Amino acid sequence: MESTTFENSANDPRVHELLSQGVRCLAAAGIESARLDAEVLLGHVLAVTRAQLIVAADLWLQADQVQRFEALLQRRLSREPVAYITGKQEFWSLDFQVTRDVLIPRPETERLIEVALTLTGELRSDPRLRVLDIGTGSGVIAVSVATELPWAEIVATDVSTVALEVAQRNAARNEVTDRITFVAGDLFAAIAERIGRFDLLVSNPPYIRRAEIATLEPEVGRWEPRAALDGGVDGLDFYRRIAAAAWQFLTPNGALALEIGADMGGEICAIFNQAGRYRDVAVFQDYAGSDRVVGAKVASNFVGSH
């Protein structure tokens, strides 16, 4: 950032002064991440990183920069998530665009990527490894896997065509467009007519219990797309549907990895075990010690056909 961007004015604050005002304003409204949010929002206005803000602490701001920051603060005070305000979110050390049509990527979902990559390492070392991402949303899972497995063919589906547009932009943003095919449709309906099976299925399906959506923090319950949150009365609807059909779309000994709610590991393992078509059903915890992913492999004698 060049210092010429800022001009001294008797009425305009320095960077550190405006930042402090923003932090106090957000903290007074009960926003726990007040400092982080204020830094990200001011950095967004100035097109600089948080580290560059520190270097620029004593530089003067222009009136229009102050006004833009104040406008973003007002949006945050309405509990709009910072990622929707800035239109971007980092995930897996990659940069993603996010809109209100998709969930904001969470750090916990990176554990899903780790488990998926571990499972692919146990699969046949075929250069034509095929991966299916169900309910891709912003595309973070498909794009992240594509960057790690450049030889893989990835199909990403979503019932929302608007979400798929965001995902396609993110694939282009991270230069993996040529390795991901995006298809609109509800779960497996999107690929029912496609030839061939997949070696790995990965998904972060909706798993919030319907009655609990109203109790979520405003940033989630009020702003994020309900269809991407609502997992039915007990939060398990999509896991039942996936367990009932996934084996038909997987290769012999193909694997699946699904993100889950922190208190759902036992129930979801039971769903897959009771389906009778899977083996090695297991729960993987995140780094906070909470259940985060269920993994399983299809029993080879149950591989189906379309």
Give a concise summary.
The protein is of the alpha/beta class and 306 residues long.
Topology, pairings included?
Elements: H1 15-28, H2 34-46, H3 50-55, H4 63-77, H5 82-86, E1 88-91, E2 94-97, H6 110-122, E3 130-134, H7 140-148, E4 153-158, H8 161-173, E5 180-184, E6 198-203, H9 218-221, H10 237-245, E7 250-259, H11 265-275, E8 278-285, E9 291-298
Would you write up a description of this structure?
It is a single chain. The protein has 306 residues and is α/β, with parallel strands linked by helices. The chain has 2 domains: 3-78, Helicase, Ruva Protein, domain 3, CATH 1.10.8; 89-302, Vaccinia Virus protein VP39 (Rossmann fold, 3-Layer(aba) Sandwich), CATH 3.40.50. 37% of the residues lie in helices and 18% in strands. Strands 5-4-3-6-7-9-8 form a 7-stranded mixed beta sheet, sandwiched between helices. Strands 1-2 form a two-stranded antiparallel ribbon. Strand 8 and strand 9 (291-298) form a beta hairpin. The radius of gyration is 22 Å and the shape is elongated. Mean pLDDT is 89; it is low at 1-10.
Helicity level: 25-40%
Shape: elongated
Structural class: alpha/beta
SS field, number of helical segments? 11
User: What is the makeup of the main sheet?
Assistant: 7 strands, mixed
How far is the N terminus from the C terminus? 57 Å
Tally the beta strands.
Answer: 9
The tally of domains stands at: 2
Q: Name the average pLDDT.
A: 89
Q: Report strand order across the widest sheet.
A: 5-4-3-6-7-9-8
CATH topology of the largest domain: Rossmann fold
CATH superfamily of the largest domain: Vaccinia Virus protein VP39
Strand content: 15-25%
List low-confidence stretches.
1-10
What is the N-to-C order of secondary-structure elements (H for helix, E for strand)?
HHHHHEEHEHEHEEHHEHEE
